[in-house]
Amino acid sequence: MHAHDLHVVAPDTGVTLASIDPQRTPGLSGSKEDERARAEAELADNIEAMKLLQRRLYAEGKRALLVVLQGMDAGGKDGTIRHVLGGLNPQGVEVTSFKRPTERELAHDFLWRVHRHTPGVGMIGVFNRSHYEDVLVVRVHSLVPEAVWSGRYEQINAFERLLAARGTVIRKFFLHISKEEQRERFMARLAEPEKQWKFEPGDLAERKHWDDYQAAYETALARCSTDDAPWFVIPADRKWYRNWAISTILRRTLEEMAPMPPKPDFDPASIVID
Ligand code: AMP
Ligand code: MG
To answer: What is the CATH number of the domain that holds 33?
Structure first.
């Protein structure tokens, strides 16, 4: 089965995250060494294919691709951007990382700051965190009343419908790591001077809310996976599997979009350059 079908959250169907092992590697088989070698070879292949498709998407200039990355701290959002999207032409990619909202942003509706970063035609937009934080961290910490956040699922669906109607294809990935894997990645961050800046003591406070986050994710995945903008749950304890699965899904997405450069409105053969 294709990675797309293995991981897509069917619209109107929930997922139980606890029943999905973050170490799984479905779609690959053999010894772990063989799987990893194949995954890495296919990642390189997928990137090559995406490069060509990206060029055509840009030349066509009619549609856009929006990639949403969500996950717990140390879930691999930055690594995914580096390994899967880092090989594309930077002129055609816009990455936006959503942090705690500023006062100005908080003075508006929660989609205000997001909408202006959606990709224009020809572009691939990547959200490192996204409008989903407004039903995740905001829900877990009751930053707004339940009556407010509970209305956001429908608002998100309407927003994504609007983007889709304008020609934006949306793919949303939840990087599913285990609590133990998070512990190991935090420890690795603390042990490496070059990585210590990434660790925030506040991350440990968030870790205490692990189960609440998983529950908040389950609601978002169940209520906001649509045909226009499906969610994928990617087993992400193994970075090579995560990169393989996401690149495989994005490659297929771009292949299905089948972008084509416009035909010239002149006859190239008739042009003489002296
Ligand atoms: P990092 O991804 O490590 O740079 O951290 C960004 C932080 O911003 C995370 O702790 C997020 O939970 C937080 N954040 C992002 N969006 C929102 C939001 N809409 N409301 C509150 N916190 C947010
Ligand atoms: Mg962080």
So the answer is: 3.40.50.300
Among the residue ranges 12-16, 143-147, 149-153, 181-185, the one predicted with the least confidence is 12-16
If you measure from the C-alpha of residue 199 to the centroid of ligand 2, how many angstroms do you get, rounded to a whole number?
6
The CB of 104 under 6 Å from ligand 1? The reply is no
Tens of pLDDT, residues 230-273: 999 999 999 999 999 999 999 999 999 999 999 999 999 999 99
Mutate to test the pocket of ligand 1, among 102, 129, 132, 142 (most ligand atoms within 8 A of CB): 129
Domain residue limits at 55: 3-9+27-259
What are the distances in angstroms from CA 178 to CA 122, 173, 257?
36, 16, 33
Q: What is the pLDDT of residue 109?
A: 98
Q: Residue 206 C-alpha to ligand 1 middle, in angstroms? A: 11
Q: For residues 56 and 256, is the Cβ–Cβ distance under 8 A?
A: no
Within-domain flag for 152: yes
Residue 128 maps to a domain: yes
Tell me what pLDDT residue 14 has.
Answer: 86
Mutational test site, ligand 1, from 98, 102, 149, max ligand atoms within 8 Å of CB? 98
Closest ligand to the CA of 100: 1
How many Å lie between the centroid of ligand 1 and the Cα of residue 55?
32
Q: Does the residue 105 lie in any domain?
A: yes
Mean per-residue pLDDT, 62-79: 98
Strands in 75-222 per DSSP E? 93-97, 124-128, 168-176
Q: What is the pLDDT of residue 12?
A: 84
How many domains is the chain built from? 1
Give domain status of residue 19, yes or no.
Answer: no
In the sheet where 64-71 sits, what is the strand order?
93-97, 124-128, 64-71, 168-176, 231-235
